[in-house]
Design brief:
Mannose-Binding Protein A, Chain A; alpha+beta; 4 helices; about 160 residues; eight-stranded mixed sheet; globular
């Protein structure tokens, strides 16, 4: 079916509505798949006193961190098994950047909080050096929910967090 004919025939659809339905803008999901509730912005999910944004695009760790910062948020800081379980379920078995990074040999959260809770996969972190060039200094949540140290330049989805 020709798109112009479709728009003329249906008539009540505006171009902006068609754009929203067919493909959301960069870094956002279609509105129908996002949750709204509590005191979180539209498109963010809430658990307790935090709001979470799950990206639909992939970026390097630093770019993901900047994306969160531009929304007055930070890459997610995971403090408990309850929060880990929530994020794992919402991540839908997709690899996601989290806000943990190696800094001078120590793992540090982007907000400066201590790493009192961890959820590393077996044998992780292993700082496997790819092609003897790139160390694994950033952390992803793998498809199984466990954490893995990864090359920071790897494009992955990410999770932002901010206070509700």
């Amino acid at each position: 079916m020709d798109t112009k004919w479709f728009l003329v025939t249906v008539g009540f659809l505006l171009v902006s509505q068609v754009t929203l339905c067919l493909g959301a803008a960069e870094d956002s999901r279609p509105i129908a798949k996002r949750s709204t509730g509590g005191s979180c912005p539209r498109g963010w999910d809430q658990l307790d006193n935090s709001c979470y944004f799950f990206s639909w695009h992939e970026r390097k760790w630093e770019d993901a961190r900047n994306h969160c910062g531009a929304r007055n948020a930070h890459l997610v800081v995971i403090n408990s098994q309850k929060e880990q379980d929530f994020l794992e379920r919402k991540a839908e078995s997709r690899r996601q950047w989290i806000g943990l990074r190696r800094d001078g040999g120590s793992w540090r959260w982007v907000n400066g909080s201590p790493t009192s809770f961890t959820y590393w996969g077996g044998g992780e972190p292993n700082n496997l050096v790819h092609f003897l060039i790139y160390p694994e200094n950033c952390v992803e949540m793998r498809r199984d929910g466990r954490w893995n140290d990864e090359i920071c330049h790897t494009p992955l989805r990410w999770i932002c967090e901010k206070s509700a």
